[in-house]
Write a structure and sequence with these properties.
The chain has one domain. It is built from 7 helices and 5 strands, in the order αββααβαααββα.
Length: about 160
């Protein structure tokens, strides 16, 4: 498309950081992991407002569809340290086994983060995951009016055949 993805979205998501809090032992503290998940999602969605080309091709803005595993991988789950790589070098399949286990752990953490962001009102699931297609999550980074416009545009794109 030629459009840089997520630059404005990153700025808007960063402004939400003080509001992404969790309660731990009766005290509020920043939920840095959920914030990292939101940043990953924002980086991989098109900014609002759509360009003329996006309008012609019905490309949604702020709609994240890359999947939970992509978030886990982006956050470094599945990566091995130099020592772990050396230790696994002589054992066939060991590196893959460790990476898969870590990615699964990362996917669980990312799923938990997305649920937290939905509960906080920063993300909305538009379409569930199904065989062969990741779930679609709308990022609610603007004010209520802008979020309504972004969601209306996303549904218009989906109805026009956006599949990703």
């Amino acid at each position: 498309m030629g459009t840089k993805m997520g630059m404005k979205n990153l700025i808007l998501a960063a402004e939400l950081q003080p509001r992404i809090m969790r309660e731990t032992r009766g005290l509020l503290s920043p939920n840095t992991h959920a914030f990292s998940t939101l940043i990953t999602m924002a980086r991989h969605t098109y900014d609002w407002e759509p360009t003329a080309r996006q309008r012609i091709n019905h490309v949604p803005c702020r709609l994240y569809e890359r999947g939970i595993m992509f978030i886990a991988d982006s956050q470094g789950y599945g990566k091995l340290s130099a020592k772990e790589s050396l230790d696994a070098a002589g054992k066939p399949g060991e590196k893959s086994r460790i990476q898969c286990k870590r990615l699964e752990s990362g996917a669980e953490a990312a799923s938990k983060d997305v649920r937290f962001l939905i509960e906080c009102g920063f993300v909305k699931q538009l379409r569930p995951q199904r065989l062969g297609r990741n779930a679609s999550y709308l990022l609610l980074l603007g004010d209520p009016e802008e979020n309504r416009l972004v969601e209306d545009w996303a549904w218009e794109c989906i109805e026009a055949g956006w599949k990703r």
